[in-house]
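Below: protein 1.
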Amino acid sequence: MALPDQPPSYQAVLRTPTAGRTFQVSLVGRLSYGIVFLSLTLAITSSTGSYVVAGAAVAVFGLANSLLAPLRSGLIDRHGSARLLLPMGVAYALLLAVLAALTWSGATDAWLLVPVAAAAGACAPPLGPVMRTVWSDLLPDARMLQRAYSLDTVCEEVLYVTGPLLVGLLVIVADPPLGIAVSAALVLVGTLAFVRTPAVRAQRGTLAMPAPAAPDAAGDRHGMTPGPLSVAAALGLALGSLNLFVVAFAGRHGQLASVAWIEAALAVGSVVGGLLYGSLDWRTSARTRLAVLAAALAAPLALAGTSSGLPAMMAATAVTGLLVAPTLTTAYLLADEQATDQNRTRVGTWVTTAFNLGNAAGAAGAGFLVGALPLPACFALAAGPLLLSALAPLAFGPPAKPRAAADPGADELTALTDTREGAEGSTRR
């Protein structure tokens, strides 16, 4: 419980009973996703000598993972995390182990790797969405939940930055398939520890809940939230395009090695922006903040295309990064506000899926833009969808059901509420 004159801190979030340990072990499993894509690419390329096979395998792995993620999360909402997460994690780890063995031996038909990779992606356990559902269960206070989601988003981003670096170290000391094996071990250990935590065991699924008397007030039977989905997709599209645009920028300036510095500026900006955003108390609603953040992101992204050199590009991408984690965090917060106990995990997963599909589309389309248009026009076009998506949180979607911030002075009432929440946790999801 925060003191009356102090806003809740990130430390207070992690001190919430069971939250710290649950979050830590979820990050162990989620590190697997930061490692697996580059590991698959390197292992399959070195084993088959074919970039076509490697590209096909990684593509179907990513598509199966993203497109089927809402289905997996819907099953978890219905049957409970503890019941389904472990079978998913075991199946996913076993299929990754098969891929590691096949690429290590190099004695199999190269195209056999593609269906195995697709099957692995289809089984990937949604550890991130389930962790966000755990945060929502454990933290009824809106300010605490904002800090938890910000911390979660920032840590996930750090995993996706450090994952490829770890793969690089593994390749130095061993063959590329070791990265796939390490990814399998991480997700198996992380998932096993995750489902054994009290917070995850309490998620029993909607089958253990009384049937609702009427459709929820939001009227959202399918878990679709147009506002967060539109912004997440536009953000993914922009970032997917940006990856290739900065390569083209660096190449045209004869500084190809500077790509790493530009990407680092974006990542550092996102981490700093995410932590700062989560630490502040906001008076505006999540819907308004999401619209403002999406529109604000478009400006530095478009201006990056006018950069005259490396320092200007790094500055523009750093400013862009400052808004990336806050935008994604707010999309998750708004989705959670619009969700019900029957679809909370699935709704959050739809935001992730929209971001991933937007990212893939941006990466695919950026090559055509770079070949046909001046680079400043490419950056401006990537910023356009963000401006358009800023309208969606305000114009579309059901009304949100915002949480009230806890009264800092009502210690006894808060303690009673926390006790009631803990008792209900044994029958929720």
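Below: protein 2.
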Amino acid sequence: MQLFAFGLNHTTAPVEIREKVNFSAERLRYALHDLTEHELVREAVIVSTCNRTEVYCSLDQENTHALIGWLSHFHNLPRTLLENQLYSYYNGGVVRHLFRVVCGLDSMILGEPQILGQMKAAYQVARKERATGGLLNKLFEYSFTVAKRVRTDTAISSSPVSVAFAAVRLAQQIFGDLNQITALLIGAGETVELAARHLHENRLKRMIVANRTIERARQLAKTFAGYAITLEEIPMHLAEADIVVTSTASPTPILGEEVVKQAIKLRKHRPMFMVDIAVPRDIAAEVGKLEDVYLYTVDDLNEVIQENLRSRQQAALQAEEIIDTQVTHFINWWHSLDTVDTICDLRDRSQEIRHHLVLKAKRMLDGGKPPYEVIDYLAHTLTNTLMHTPCVQLRQAGYEGREDLVSAARQLFQLPEE
């Protein structure tokens, strides 16, 4: 069995490509079933976030060309559009890449903690859909243990660095103090909640939370003394917003050019700072061309994020050392699986011999043989029987000049060096 992983992320593909291969929650389940029905695939986990889409598989044989074709076919995209954007890993490379991803070492924001939760969620979906088996279950669960150790033993996530934090820091650069600023947050997921927390901690004057489910919007708004609205009410409140942060799972843009243009007119051309963290994008690209609008996507925030990474660089080096050790441990465990059948056969053979000789010894006792004679017979015969085949094979190895087999036998039975 082999491990194979392939995908694209913020370093290999722009948001325009990433949003085309994004898996919604509904399509993810269908994709897992479709993928595991592929003749090559035994197990699969699909990870799809705003910054990456990755497929992890265990295969009976290596045929990566067919699996990359599956991805392009599933999303109805030309294969040539993806080939230059994709990366791939095999066997030990898969293990190392996964460990680095869950530890936040492969993220846009070094050490960001959100990716661990996203990877756990993707794995749980795959398990629920019965797309995983023994190997991927062990691999992903082990990776979460590695991530916990990295966060415990290093300072990789000690600084408040995230996309949401970068967005708020950029807003401060544009507006200065936020105590006279109104923010509209669209969505109620983890990223939006984190942005709300950072804004609130920086004394934002007023917060409006819009969500498809009004009850979820109310819960988040209540936490930060905000006001909740539905997505349909956004056009009526957009002109109030100095800052707009949006991150939903909508397959199409929520804010188009016309609705933003009207809001800017009502604001008398006071500037509006907009951050679109969603993939696919929530704000139409044309909005960024409007005057008095400062529109940033997740890719645009990268420069801001880089300024906040210095304190994590040393911790990342320590994390890499931990990962190196844990990759070796996992691969050693994986290789040990190859010996399981042999060990089981050896134990079965030994038990068969033991059972036969014990029955014969019991008959000797029932026949009146002295116990010490029976014990001596049992020990002598069991030893000779167990050692007969190995000794025959070693003599043959010596006759054939198989010094490797002789050396292996000395190591296997822990015999002293000749």
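The beta strands are 2-9, 41-48, 52-59, 87-90, 182-186, 206-211, 227-230, 243-246, 272-276, 293-297.
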